UniProtKB/TrEMBL annotation:
Location of region: Disordered: 189-212
Protein name: Transcriptional regulator, PadR family
Domain Transcription regulator PadR C-terminal: 109-184
Residue span, Transcription regulator PadR N-terminal domain: 16-93
Coiled-coil ranges per UniProt: none
InterPro entries referenced in this protein's UniProt entry, alphabetically: Tscrpt_reg_PadR_C, Tscrpt_reg_PadR_N, WH-like_DNA-bd_sf, WH_DNA-bd_sf
Domain of life of the native organism: Bacteria
Length: 212
């Protein structure tokens, strides 16, 4: 796959191509299908109408999809139906195999928060980590319930591997947050004396030590 075509394969583009493997669709149908399949427990890609149309235009520009017909129902605007091309199938398979095999340079927001945690007042940091722990526990319970419902349907399990993966990731994150809280409370992790102890107002926390 050449470099320009590879740049067209954003996460949203991959999701579009995956759907077009099933059948030809127009953009509105693609949008609705994505939203129906992406529940709160199964968010895979962000779907915005403007971004979706732009993505399909890019895929068509690189001959990864092609228009097969334009239809109109009543007074509704014309709708162009697209299908995946052979080049699109090849590009999708190539990108997917590399996504599975290789780790990408990703920059999760929480990773940055962890790196900058020492900039917060210690008590505030502990409070917010406890909030995150509560949210993680709730999300994990929901994901486990979804996974449990699928456990008996062997024929469908392959289509829900992402739920199993999210369960594993949330379990690991919850364990890390819990362990980190324990280390802070046990004194194993100590805040640097030079920390500005930022408060939610954006500046250093000027509350006297004995009033915190």
């Amino acid at each position: 796959m050449d470099e320009p075509a590879e740049r067209a394969l954003s996460p949203l583009a991959m999701a579009v191509l995956e759907l077009l493997h099933e059948r030809s669709m127009h953009p509105y149908e693609i949008q609705q299908t994505m939203r129906e399949r992406q529940t709160a427990e199964r968010r895979i890609v962000k779907v915005r109408v403007g971004s979706l149309y732009h993505t399909i235009e890019r895929l068509e520009r690189f001959a990864l999809v092609e228009a097969v017909e334009t239809t109109r129902e009543g007074r509704r605007p014309e709708r162009t139906v697209y299908r995946i091309t052979d080049a699109g199938r090849e590009a999708f398979a190539d990108r997917l195999t590399r996504m599975v095999a290789l780790s990408a340079d990703e920059y999760p927001e929480f990773l940055m928060a962890v790196a900058f945690l020492h900039q917060l007042d210690q008590e505030l940091a502990v409070q917010k980590l406890r909030v995150r722990r509560t949210h993680l526990a709730g999300e994990l319970a929901t994901l486990r319930a979804v996974s449990s419902c699928l456990a008996d349907d062997v024929s469908e399990r392959m289509y829900w591997l992402d739920v199993d993966y999210r369960v594993a990731m949330r379990e690991a994150e919850l364990a890390w947050v819990t362990e980190t809280l324990d280390r802070i409370e046990d004194g194993d992790l100590r805040w640097p004396a030079s920390s500005p102890a930022l408060s939610p107002g954006g500046g250093p926390d000027t509350t006297p030590e004995d009033e915190r």
